From TrEMBL:
One of its GO terms (cellular component) is plasma membrane. It comes from Solimonas terrae. It is a multi-pass membrane protein. It comes from the Bacteria. This is Rod shape-determining protein MreD. NCBIfam families: shape_MreD (TIGR03426). Belongs to the MreD family.
């Protein structure tokens, strides 16, 4: 059983980041927009877990800067959050991969909460007020979407059923 070629991995990585950006920009009704999953942390965490040889910190920083520009947030806010999440996932990769999917989902909750906290903290420091309880809804929805994203990405990544 063969591994995907490095070119295929990079192509899938870039396409997934692009799709994450598109999903992040899709306008949702007001009742759902506060609970939008954190698509970019989800995508980057998947690749940091699945392909440790990919240098995910630099793409996390660049995509974070893109999100800062798209949302007109302080430059570096999302970049910092994404780099911290990817760094944690990379450092704790050996811990996450030994668990079944449901346990890894629970183990990743602190990463999503940390990202939300960093966004909340930087917004507070720059006086961009929002309802505090709405700040934590993305952590919940991201946790709920993680098993779905993992399963779909695994199907896309290995369409022939090849395993490492």
């Amino acid at each position: 059983m063969s591994r995907p070629s490095p070119q295929a991995v990079w192509l899938a990585f870039l396409l997934s980041l692009l799709s994450g950006l598109v999903l992040q920009m899709i306008e949702l009704p007001d009742s759902l927009s506060a609970a939008r999953p954190l698509w970019m942390p989800l995508m980057l965490a998947y690749w940091a877990l699945r392909e440790p040889q990919l240098p995910a910190l630099l793409p996390a920083f660049v995509v974070g800067l893109m999100l800062d520009v798209l949302y007109a947030s302080p430059l570096g806010q999302h970049a910092l959050g994404l780099v911290v999440v990817v760094y944690l996932v990379v450092r704790l990769r050996s811990f996450f991969i030994i668990f079944p999917l449901w346990q890894a989902t629970v183990a990743l909750i602190p990463a999503w909460v940390l990202y939300c906290f960093l966004m909340f903290w930087i917004d507070g420091a720059t006086q961009h007020e929002a309802e505090p309880w709405l700040r934590w809804l993305p952590a919940i929805s991201t946790t709920l979407f993680w098993p779905l994203l993992w399963s779909v990405m695994e199907l896309i990544r290995q369409p022939g059923g090849d395993e490492d």
